[in-house]
Amino acid sequence: MADSTKKENSNKAYQSAIRLHESFNMQRWFEVIFKHSQDGMMLFDEKGKVIAWNNALERISGMTSTMLEGRYFWDIVFDLMPEEKKSPEMYDFIKDSRDLLFSEKADEIVFMQEIKIRRPDGTTADIQQIPFPVQLDDGYGFVLFVKDVTEEKRKEQELHRSRDFLQTVIENSPDGIVIVDALGTIMSVNSTVEKFFGYSRQELIGKHTSELVVQDPHIRRHVRETMHELLEKGFATYETKHVAKDGRIVEIESTATMLKDEKGEIIGGVAILRDVSERKRVEQQIRQTQKMEALGTLAGGIAHDFNNILAAIMGYTELSLQQLERSSSVYNNLEQILKSTLRARDLVRQILTFSRASEGGKKPLELSTIITEAVKLLRALLPSTIQIRHQSNVQEATVIGDAVQIEQVLMNLGTNAGHAMQETGGILEIGLDRKHISADEAKNYADLAPGTYIEISVKDTGTGIDKSIQHRIFDPFFTTKEVGKGTGMGLAVVLGIVKSHHGAVTVESELGKGALFRVLLPEAEKDTLFQLQDNAQLPHGTERILFVDDEDFIVESIPIILKRLGYTVTACRSAVEAFNIFSHNPAAFDLIITDQTMPQMTGFELAKKALALRPGIPVILCTGFSEVVSEEDAKKVGIAEFLFKPLNQRELAHCIRKVFQKKT
Q: E-assigned strands of 333-413?
């Protein structure tokens, strides 16, 4: 019994010794940590009075031992608070928090706090403080751990600022930015992408990128090929057509880059999008312009030969008319041939005008006559399912303009209306009226002066024009027609011609209700009008003319006409021959009429050489087309007049007299 008791006491003593040893070791460890920790530590008793603190606490708080010794937890914490945070209520709150450490709910409460302190020297710091209850030799207390997180907070704020800055850059980028996951599902977009496609951010996130691509086999194949390139190289630049929310086709240039994790696994991708729709439109315009330039060059080459053919037909027809009585049936037939030839000549001039080769001359025009001619052409051009009505509310409608160009305006508006009624038929109404534009009304038009205008109206009952595109219908190459059914130049040409005549053009239309175009042209002053002279009253003369052309039938026909007008004519088939004759006796001639385009020497070169030998000799330069010589260039070297072929008897007769009147 005694041995058993002795053994039990021995075990208890051993256990006590172990506990004492463990307690001693823990105390030693605590002292080491307390002393060498980089974080501040303060030990408080159960009443909240400070018992001990380490050097790190003084460094972090800026408080000295005299500021800490014998003080209470709440006083120390309150002193370190910024002035704007201090209040009686805050003091009581801190004081009461001590009781929570020893309550039954202490384990449920997270005591860690991040606060900003103001040190005694006025500097500030961000700290984390965590209180832990501990058992002391004489009861309970608690340790307050204090960690200086000022640098961490600064770096965190810098990171936030950098992130915010990056987000601002992304959000305000003129290029669209799309982030997708590994499967191509949209995860994030910037506001530019919203503008490109008309979808909100919420609508775009979650969509697959393929949902925005035009459903076209060729485009789909192109996208697949690009994706293979992206997987192989990690990046790719490509162009695709996308469909916006409102159905618009948006042409996008994309630069895509794969995103990979540290293991090299694909986790997504980022794409920079650029809307190149406008660039594509401009490129298309440039291509169309180049086509027009090529057409102009081709037209010029054809026009020269075609005008020579017309000149022969016109010349011999006029000669034949002079040999016949007006009552003859043949006379009437030849007169129709002459009218057709004049129309063919005007057609060539029209082609040259709109392929940039020439500009027609402006003179007083009676619009009712031009409209009548245009209506005849439109009746032949448009299908019988379209009725054409022509009404004029004015007796005289005279403007200063180019007849060919004004007729082109009517033809373009008329054919445009015909296209709108092609499937269902309808009514085309062409009207003529007078309209006074006041100063206030003129403000509603671009570059229109107040005054009296002649109004040409072209109204149809066709499909109409959507209001959303009405502002674009006068843009060059803009068209809603299928490929091959229009170049988009018709209305652009109308606007260009009308503006060159100091007028204006407007449109009123609704879908399904047809369209009404109004063209305003300044009315001519009464004193500008003139009466055209009849062929029987053609001016005559007795001067000596050197006539030059390389076409036989022109050299044969025109001199006969000139001789019948009283002139003495020397005809040559080349500029070289003409100059040889002229150089032997420059005084033998009063006028030179020369073609421009001839082999060996052009008419322009002949004129310069002749003027060098005899300054002041009048020269009339005739051409069907010339890129090299304009009317302005011709007059700079002393050429008196510039005529377009084929030569008309009346125009030629009046031009010759005009030259001699200038000389006198």
A: 363-366, 386-392, 398-401
Q: Which CATH number fits domain 25-153: 3.30.450.20, 3.30.1330.30, 3.10.20.30, 3.10.310.10?
A: 3.30.450.20
**Residues of CATH 3.30.450.20 domain(s) within the chain?**
25-153, 173-275
User: In Å, how far from its chain's centre is CA 554?
Assistant: 51
Spatial CB neighbours of 355, under 8 Å, sequence gap ≥ 6: 292, 293, 295, 296, 299, 300
Closest CA to 517 of 437, 463, 457, 469: 457
Residue predicted with more confidence, 384 or 110: 384
* CATH number, span 173-275: 3.30.450.20
Ranges in the chain annotated CATH 3.30.565.10: 359-530
DSSP string for residues in 611-634? HHHSTT--EEEEES--SS--HHHH
8 Å CB contact between 459 and 515: yes
Count of other CB atoms within 10 angstroms of residue 650: 16
Distances (CA, A) of 591 to 163, 456, 620, 640, 658: 84, 43, 8, 10, 12
Place of tokens 């009676």: 366
Q: How far apart are alpha carbons 224 and 214 in whole angstroms? A: 13
Dist. CA 517–CA 520, nearest whole Å? 10
- Whether this model's pTM surpasses 0.85: no
Best-predicted range by mean pLDDT (107-111, 280-284, 311-315, 438-442)? 438-442
**Residue 641 contacts by C-beta under 8 Å, 6 or more apart in sequence?**
618, 620, 621, 655, 658, 659
Give 506's contacts (C-beta < 8 A, 6+ positions apart).
Answer: 445, 517, 518
Cis-peptide into 646, omega within 30 deg: yes
CATH 3.30.565.10 matches 359-530: yes
What length does the chain have? 664
Distance CA 493, CA 356 (A): 12
Q: Which two tokens stand for residue 39?
A: 């974080």
| Sheet with strand 50-53: strands edge to edge | 50-53, 40-45, 139-148, 124-136, 113-118
Mean pLDDT lowest among 133-142, 449-458, 563-572, 650-659:
133-142
Token pair for 548: 């030059």
The one-letter amino acid at 35: K
Residues sharing a CB contact under 8 Å with residue 352, sequence separation 6 or more, in sequence order? 296, 299, 300, 303, 358, 625
- Portions of the chain given CATH number 3.40.50.2300: 537-663
Burial degree of 269 (CB within 10 A; 0-12, 13-18, 19+): buried
pLDDT band at 611 (very low <50, low <70, confident <90, very high): very high
Contacting residues for 72 by C-beta, under 8 A, at least 6 apart: 44, 47, 48, 49, 50
CB 116 within 8 A of CB 82: yes
**Residues 246-254: contacts with CB within 8 Å, 24+ apart?**
246/198, 248/198, 249/214, 249/277, 250/196, 250/197, 250/275, 250/277, 251/275, 251/276, 251/277, 251/280, 252/176, 252/196, 252/276
Q: Which fold has domain 537-663?
A: Rossmann fold (3.40.50)
- What number is the average pLDDT over the span 425-442? 91
What tokens does 583 get?
């150089």
∠ CA(252), CA(256), CA(262), 5° rounding? 160
What are the b/e assignments for 414-437, b being 16+ CB within 10 Å?
A: bbbbbbbbbeeebebbbbbeeeeb
